[in-house]
Amino acid sequence: MTFKDLQLNAKILKAVSEQNYSTPTPIQEKTIPLVLDGIDVIGCAQTGTGKTAAFALPILERLFNLADAKKGEKQIKALIVTPTRELTIQIEENFKMYSTYTNLRTASVYGGISIEPQIELLKKGVDILIATPGRLLDLHKRDILNLDYIQTLVLDEADMMLDMGFIDDVKKIARLCPPKKQTLLFSATMPPKIDALANELLTEPEKVSVSVLSSAAKTISQELYMVPKPQKIELCLHLLRNDLRGNMIIFRRTKFGVDKLEETLLKNKYKVDTIHGDKTQVARTKALNKFKNNDVNILIATDVAARGIDIPDLDIVINFDLPNIPEAYVHRIGRTGRAGKEGRALSFCSADEKTYVKEIQQLLGKLIPIEENHPYPLDPAAKPEVHKKQGSKYKKGRKSVGSKAKKKRWY
Ligand code: AMP
Questions:
Q1: Is the CA virtual torsion 5, 32, 94, 147 positive or negative?
Q2: Does the residue 399 lie in any domain?
Q3: How does pLDDT run across 341-350, given as a tens digit for each residue?
Q4: pLDDT tens digit string along 263-279?
Q5: What's the domain count of the chain?
Q6: Do 278 and 343 belong to one domain?
Q7: Whether 307 and 182 share a structural domain
Q8: Are residues 199 and 225 in the same domain?
Q9: CB 49 near ligand 1, within 6 Å
Q10: Do 281 and 113 meet the contact criterion of CB atoms below 8 Å apart?
Q11: For residue 195, what are the domain limits?
Q12: Whole-number mean pLDDT of the chain?
């Protein structure tokens, strides 16, 4: 299938071809025709699958075809609600790229920076608005926003919005839009609360899914390093010196952990920057740009700060700390192996994190191979029930998490 087969107009096709997208990704193939038909969609897909274009392209196509858009009347007709500022900026960039040859105007609003320029921007009129929930509601309260013309509402990374406590805000936003509209909900995972939200907000939705580790993520090789907690830093330095090349994100659970690791890596002359919630928006954007421009090749981040950010040529993800929410693992490793590229995901597991590995493996429905060839092994007796990289047999006489997971269909 080609983008042309998806009935997009020549102006959008031109912008798409300038992005060097040759064929639509699976989520795009499935989603674009539904959105063009005005159908509500529940999209189960993580970042890296091409999900932004899956909703952005048909939204642009529909707006492009509206007579009033052609006349240049600016009312917000598509609203995309996302959990983080980074994601908001990224989606805005995508919309702007794809609409280069149209007269559709896109803007974004998010917290952490002054509201005044955003008010000015909105007063000029936009067709497509991308927003984080808090700032959006703030602007609405100030009577700056008119949501009466919304035709399509997109809730992106809905599970993340749930995790961050935004669900009531999201429901409020949906109620502020006209009852007759198209609603698209995208989520990397589908916990029951997201199902319930979809039931409440969507009308006869079609479900589209790209399984968590299919397409983009198939190309990610996953490795588990069993290591005593105090030696994780040594292991990290050892791997950086001897094995790892390219751009990488190192995830830590806490802001404190991020800062501590940054200090050590800087002392060892690595080019590093960090993003976490305590940094100002300006500092986070600066760090991200340095990373994107290859001024630094190591970014250390917490989950919330890094969720959804798109770095096309990321080679490696290191889970320095394992996340206590298994879905976060999927989000983290989804930063690499994009668009068919090969990626590596290395996870450091200390004795107290073994339960996290079990939960992650259950979510994946498979075992993560252990990499034993490193100088800082955990006591062999302390290994979790995991799949060894060499010799693909599960340990006998133990209850294997993997075999249990295999019986269950997770996605
Ligand atoms: P997303 O999942 O929307 O964050 O997209 C992940 C990355 O894939 C982005 O860098 C997009 O520019 C890129 N991308 C989206 N669609 C395609 C496509 N059809 N072919 C190649 N790359 C794509």
A1: positive
A2: no
A3: 778 999 999 9
A4: 999 999 999 999 887 87
A5: 2
A6: yes
A7: no
A8: no
A9: yes
A10: yes
A11: 3-209
A12: 85
CA of 50 to the centre of ligand 1 (A): 4
CA separation (Å) from 44 to 27, 41, 157, 354?
Answer: 9, 10, 9, 28
Dihedral angle at the C-alpha atoms of 228, 234, 237, 239, nearest 10 degrees?
Answer: -50
184 and 276 co-located in one domain: no
> Does residue 82 have its Cβ closer than 6 Å to ligand 1?
no
Tell me the CA–centroid distance for residue 267 and ligand 1, in Å: 36
Higher pLDDT, 285 or 262: 262
* 174 CA → ligand 1 middle, Å: 27
Q: Is the CB of 51 under 6 A from ligand 1?
A: yes
Q: Which atom of ligand 1 is nearest to the CA of 19?
A: 12
Tens of pLDDT, residue by residue over 198-228, are 999 999 999 998 754 443 356 788 999 999 9
Whichever domain contains 20, its CATH number is 3.40.50.300
Distance between CA atoms of 95 and 136, rounded to whole angstroms? 18
Name the pTM for this structure. 0.64
Among 52, 86, 90, 307, the mutation site with the greatest number of ligand 1 atoms within 8 A of its Cβ is: 52
Q: Does any ligand 1 atom lie closer than 6 A to the CB of residue 144?
A: no
> 284 and 190: one domain?
no
Count of residues in the chain: 411
Per-residue pLDDT at 405: 31
